[in-house]
Amino acid sequence: MSRVAIIFYSQTGNTEELAKEIAAGVRAAGGEADLLRPQEVKHIRDYDSVALGCPAMGFEEIDDDIFEPMYNSIREDLLQKKVMLFGSYGWGGGEWMRTWEKEITGFGVKLCCSSVICCESPDKETREEARAAGAQLV
């Protein structure tokens, strides 16, 4: 059975909603999903796949106070995993995700599917995308 870590930071609950949909997709595909907040992550060695979720912060960037330190601590281990990115935003057009995708793939991480993003709360279509992405992590 494939084991998936879904690591997320959420301020308003929108990114957490996406995390739960990804977990549902993982479980529906026969995998095991663990929902983790950045403070709970010590390592990711025991996982086959990792979904990383963070909302857009400041000037369209990932959170640098809570999420980014954890992300930097596990980045090397992501090279050997199936990885996907997700998150929400409230302004702009999702530039933070394009920047994050470019940074992580430039480091050598291969993303297994398209990133899932939404403006504010996820709608039905975005929830379906999140579940489908979760299944691809299995």
Question: Can you describe this structure?
Answer:
With 138 residues, this protein is an alpha/beta fold. The protein has a single domain, classed as Rossmann fold, CATH 3.40.50.360. Helices cover 36% and strands 20% of the residues. β3 (49-53), α2 and β4 form a beta-alpha-beta unit. α1 crosses α4. It starts with a strand and ends with a helix.
Give a short synopsis of this structure.
The chain is α/β, with parallel strands linked by helices and 138 residues long. The protein has helices spanning 14-28, 67-74, 95-107, 124-136, and strands at residues 3-8, 32-36, 49-53, 82-89, 116-119. It has a single domain (3-136), classed as Rossmann fold (3-Layer(aba) Sandwich).
